[in-house]
Amino acid sequence: MTQPDRYSNNYPPPLQGAENYNDWKFRMKIFLQRDAFEWDAVENGFTIPIKHGKPKSLKDLSPEEVNAMNSNAKSMNSLLNSMVATELQKVSVCTTTKQIWDTIKVSHEGTSKVREVKLSMLMSDYEGFRLERDESVRDAQGRFLTLMNSISLLERIISQSEINRKIIMAMPKKFSPKVTIL
Fold this sequence. Notes:
By secondary structure, this protein is mostly helical. The protein has two domains: about 20-110, no CATH class; about 110-180, no CATH class. Helix content is about 60%, strand content about 0%. It contains nine helices and two strands; from the N terminus they run ααββααααααα. It has helices spanning about 20-30, 35-45, 65-80, 85-90, 95-110, 110-125, 135-155, 160-170, 175-180, and strands spanning about 50, 55. The protein has a two-stranded antiparallel sheet. Helix 2 (about 35-45) crosses helix 3 (about 65-80) and helix 6 (about 110-125) packs antiparallel against helix 7 (about 135-155). It is elongated, with a radius of gyration of 21 Å.
């Protein structure tokens, strides 16, 4: 099955590798959140119901267990259908949506220690953010939004008031009258 040229509610966004991982993660999260139970399977995982040390048969499952199993299967299907072969190989032994999500996340973002280092570097860029010489405000805004999105994808929340202060402080002296007005 080939992926459509544009994104829709019917097809998961394609994960083609490291080059589009951040976009994929953002889009896939929204895609899976269209059903709260599917996203719950990603965030909180799914445990196969056990009875007498073996997986329960379908007839022994409660309606809640059937719903959880179906949500896990739907979200697994969405994740797997979004991946090219090289990404599928990374998750071929995973049995739950959470395992797939976490495996892909570690594969592209690294372990928690690696993410901490990346976040530290991004926060350093954030702290030192300034408009470059001869850079347009539009270009600086693009750089800043890319930086903020990268920080957000590593699950660091920065308040809007702090962001506003950072933007004002990043303005060069030639914008002093406008900064004063703000």
